[in-house]
Design goal:
Shape: flat
Distance between the termini: 117 Å
Number of helices: 10
Strand content: under 5%
CATH class of the largest domain: Mainly Alpha
Keywords: Nucleus
Pfam families: Cut8
Subcellular location: Nucleus
CATH topology of the largest domain: Methane Monooxygenase Hydroxylase, Chain G, domain 1
GO cellular component, one term: nucleus
Radius of gyration: 38 Å
Helix content: 55-70%
GO molecular function: proteasome binding
Order of helices and strands: HHHHHHHHHH
């Protein structure tokens, strides 16, 4: 039965026997509506977002950051140091040597094409001097890092390769402009002598003999190294 009309034409809300109106029921039920939740299959737990794999994370850091991380872990747990040392791989020279090759090529690319003169005069040197300095700097920096690490077999291998880059760089007409090459050979000779004197226990006798033969091809630049290696060969 419909509710009686009021004087203004509206109707009174229906009231159930317990005293609640129809409109109250509608509003009340609307307020109880809850948002739908995503159903999870029986026996399965909601999966959290996966963190990136450790190898991918480590690629975002530079060498110094990784060194500090390892040192911090070893400081907190000293027993880890022995395990780290046992599992250290041989240093990989591939990228270092590739960089030296690129720096050497930069010198030759900067060399002007000239039909006059020797091609090794002051003009040509000025065109290449920046790249000559860059090669020398890179050879010395990489060598110092390897010597600091005391990876003596790797130092021996590095010196033999870097010496080829130094020797392949142009020799200039003005002897004073060859100082960079001379200083590079002097530094490499020093690295090799340190390897021969401090790495006696780890250097292979056959490798030392082969190194001596290769170093003889550079004249007097490696006399000190040859003498030191001869004691191990």
């Amino acid at each position: 039965m419909a509710s009686p009309a009021l004087s203004d034409g509206s109707y009174e809300p229906e009231v159930d026997p317990e005293g609640s109106s129809f409109s109250d029921d509608v509003l009340g039920s609307a307020s109880e509506i809850k948002p739908k939740q995503k159903r999870v299959a029986a026996g399965k737990k909601p999966t959290a977002a996966k963190a990136p794999a450790l190898p991918k994370l480590l690629k975002a850091f530079d060498n110094e950051q990784l060194i500090q991380l390892i040192l911090k872990m070893v400081a907190e747990k000293p027993e880890l140091q022995a395990r780290v040392l046992e599992n250290l791989p041989k240093p990989d020279l591939a990228k270092k040597l590739k960089r030296l090759d690129q720096l050497e090529r930069n010198i030759w690319r900067a060399m002007p094409n000239t039909r006059f003169g020797s091609g090794r005069d002051a003009f040509c040197y000025r065109r290449c001097s920046v790249h000559v300095g860059a090669l020398k700097k890179a050879i010395l920096e990489e060598g110092k890092n390897l010597v600091t690490s005391a990876a003596w077999p790797t130092v021996l291998e590095y010196v033999l390769s870097a010496a080829q880059n130094a020797a392949s760089a142009p020799t200039w007409d003005d002897s004073s402009k060859n100082n960079q090459k001379s200083l590079t050979f002097k530094a490499l000779d020093g690295y090799m002598k340190q390897a021969a004197t401090k790495g006696k226990a780890v250097l292979d006798q056959e490798a030392c003999t082969e190194a001596i033969e290769k170093l003889k091809g550079y004249g007097e630049h490696f006399n000190g190294s040859i003498e030191a290696l001869a004691k191990l060969a």
